[in-house]
Amino acid sequence: MSYFKNPVVWFDIYTQDLQRAKSFYEKVFHLTLTEEPTDGSFQAYRFPGGMPGLGSMGALMYHPMRKPSSEGTIVYFDCEDCEQQSNLALLHGGQVFKSKWRIGDDGFIAIIGDTEGNAIGLHSFK
Predict the structure, then answer these.
(1) Which residue ranges make up each domain of the chain?
(2) pTM
(3) CATH fold of 10-124, please?
(4) How far is CA 120 from CA 41, 46, 74, 114, in A?
């Protein structure tokens, strides 16, 4: 079996209200974000994990020169069931742009909106 390293090593999800976004992601994905040390020009909370790894690392980011957006690149989060996370997103101030649908043998995806105005993807095999 050959090993393929994931070429994506980091992502930023921009916020307007970092604490609100932190609360949303922790509740929707049942995880704990940790404060990331910075040079003081921005603030960040890091998702769990480490580099290097099989997946990619990332953080919620408040930066005065960056804004959240529902246009452009979408980061997909692994989850047990896209429908569960979609429901949690609604419960915690988010929205559902595209409900769960099958993508063939690769499982299911859904597109939700976070509390900051970002579109994010969900992926599950169930």
Answers:
(1) 10-124
(2) 0.90
(3) 2,3-Dihydroxybiphenyl 1,2-Dioxygenase; domain 1 (3.10.180)
(4) 25, 16, 5, 7
User: What is the structure's pLDDT at 53?
Assistant: 65
Phi, psi of 80 (to 5 degrees): -65, -45
Average confidence (pLDDT) per 10 residues, the chain, 126 residues: 68 96 98 95 92 79 94 93 97 98 96 97 96
- The DSSP string of 83-107 is HHHHHHHHHTT-EEEEEEEE-GGG-
Question: Token digits for 73?
Answer: 């690149």
Distance CA 117, CA 104 (A): 29
